[in-house]
Amino acid sequence: MTSTTHSVDEVLPAPRLFALGLQHVLVMYAGAIAVPLIIGRALKLPPQDVAFLISADLFVCGIASILQSMGATQWFGIKLPVMMGVTFAAVGPMASMAVANPGVDGARMIFGAIIGAGIVTVLIAPFVSRMLRFFPPVVTGTIILVIGVSLMKIGIAWIFGLGVGPTAPKLVDPANAEWLKTVTEAAGAAGATLPAVPKGLALAPSVPNPAYAPVSNIVLSLVVLAIVVCVARFTKGFLSNIAVLIGIIAGGVIAAGLGLMHFEKVASAAWFAPIMPFHFGMPIFSPVLILTMVLVMIVVMIESTGMFLALGEMTGRQVTQPMLSSGLRMDGLGTILGGVFNTFPYTSFSQNVGLVGVTGIRSRFVCVAGGVIMVVLGLIPKMGALVEALPTVVLGGAGIVMFGMVAATGIRILTAVDFKTNRNNLFVVGIAVGFGMIPVVAPDFHMWLPKAIGPLVDSGILLASIASVVLNLVFNGATGDAAGLREAAMSAEA
After folding, report:
1. Which of 120, 233, 252, 467 lies 20 to 30 Å from 126, alpha-carbon distance?
2. Is residue 197 included in any domain, yes or no?
3. How many domains does the chain have?
């Protein structure tokens, strides 16, 4: 390296680039595969399609990371060591869309909303930095806290089972179901004197379902959780950073030993397959769904801004306004690519920002190498099939950690907020968190509202975002600044 080369622009030897890039991949891998698993299963797609979503996600993660770190013209890419991954902020709205519209058509609607939101993000990126004053730490911390708490619902469902479907807590008594069948057939017979069974009549579930929360699943989830905690507690550096991944791998091995994990689809999956655009057909563009995703992307861009400013501090490279705009445009371009290649909205991964601080390696080419590794993994369908084969109960134990850490990050940001001399901040956080919990506690609260706004209000994250911004303006005014956001982001990665 010459004296004129900044550490961010240093090109390390290839073996070291590969090792450090692989470390970045391993740190983000668990988070990268979580979202396609959640949404794929929420859409009730067959296992091979869920596996494809995982492969597509890894592929686009790699492409977006390369473009963000390397830069693509002056318009795209912050040119800092950034790994891009699917944002958890979009999980709530996308899961709502998936539940309302399961199957391929639901996937096409989600991808249409993502492409539309990505285009809007590219266009508004230069203006987002001017909105920083509306997102001080009291707002960003609250939003991230609600993201984590909202996602906890998913992690818990992975362990015990969904409230509906084959894993519902109760089932219809088979004897009662047989009786109703007999009565229905008798009423429909020729010359029957029985009145016809009312259309839509169904028996209420009344007997416990053995598939819901079996003790074996709870124990396995606790084992995975214990492994993650032990690795995080008793190891340091690299191993500690990948504690969640180690827990998932260990849980998969145990599940395979217990006969809970099956590898037929892994064996039948190809070793190589290209990721083709519009795998599920042409996207469906719904204005309301696009608006929902645009609101999500505004939150994502604010989070990314904090991460970029924190990275600038860590690497010693000042983040200028043009750099910030280029980085945020890349969030939009990555999201467009996500919709085109059958995956989801993209943002900078916070754990990888933290890894830059832990390792002290500032070269952006390390993340370029990590992106190349992700692209290669995405082109190997067996990797996606292997992840899809993991029982959800294994992911549940790890999910408690992953989603809990998201919530803890929000709490950590809030610790820097002045609650002692400014009691108004208590109102901002308390009320906004309450709004965020509405869809979690009362998922059918909007049943009498216009159906068109259902996806818009079904996300506690969006409700909390709007509430926290409005309440902060009412109580504190537009007092946020870049320094505050930078400080919040850096505290989140400490």
Report:
1. 467
2. no
3. 1
